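Troubleshooting entry. The earlier prediction with NDP gave an output that would not parse, so I re-checked the input for stray whitespace and re-submitted. Clean input:
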Amino acid sequence: MSKVALVTGGTRGIGEAVCVALKDAGYIVVANYGGNDEAAKAFTERTAIPAFKFDVSDFNKTKSAIDQITEDFGPVEVLVNNAGITRDGTMHRMSFEQWDAVIQTNLASCFNTCRAVIDTMRANQFGRIVNIGSVNGQAGQYGQVNYAAAKSGIHGFTKALALEGAGKGITVNAIAPGYVDTDMVRAVPEEVLKKIIATIPVGRLGKPEDIARSVLFLVGDEAGFITGSTLSINGGQHMY
Ligand code: NDP
């Protein structure tokens, strides 16, 4: 029977590619998004994948939405925590709001979604969770104390939850993408982006599909021995 997969931030960029890859592989896919109705509508028209609007940084709204998804489609067996934002600025200029928005959306969201699915995954003795981190959570980045803290938090969160899930058939892994050609990266000034690309040994930005194929690999039934790992997909930009 097809498994239900929920992809947060699934209507654009990396999330869209993940949704499409999962759908093509036979999963029943549900996407989430935060506020861009136009992009979500176009996504559903393109892919025929339903999109649910809820703010993943809001614990109660996330729980209600996941309860609704469970009622409509069945229990979420595959969860991809992909929703994320940037609110860049150097520390001495960063407001509390910039800090908090990124921590809540990129990190607290992982607690919110996982908390909503974990009881059922434990009861069913099966679950696949993939959290999207970042090279900037591994290496740090100028002007991104908020983003680097949130993404590096994701890597610790992944390992701790992997330990808890291991005896229950639940795997929890992270992917740390390097720079991928999406709206998020297109917002970086062109001169800065050129300098970034010059530091990528493969000589190009990643494609959303480069990340999606790895998500597909990690959520497979046969990937049950892979847990607590971080897969770095960055064109050789950062190796450790
Ligand atoms: P995009 O900006 O292209 O898309 C972000 C998605 O997240 C959108 O669907 C957006 O919804 C959704 N989203 C944002 N905030 C919320 C929220 N509060 N609640 C629900 N959904 C929300 O991002 P990318 O595809 O570039 O990035 C995807 C993930 O990969 C992020 O976690 C990012 O940090 C990470 N990443 C990206 C890299 C890159 O180079 N692109 C590199 C490393 C990591 P809406 O359309 O409604 O705004």
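This one parsed fine. Residues 8-9, 11-15, 32-36, 39, 55-57, 82-85, 105, 132, 134, 177, 179-180, 182-185 surround NDP (CB under 6 Å).
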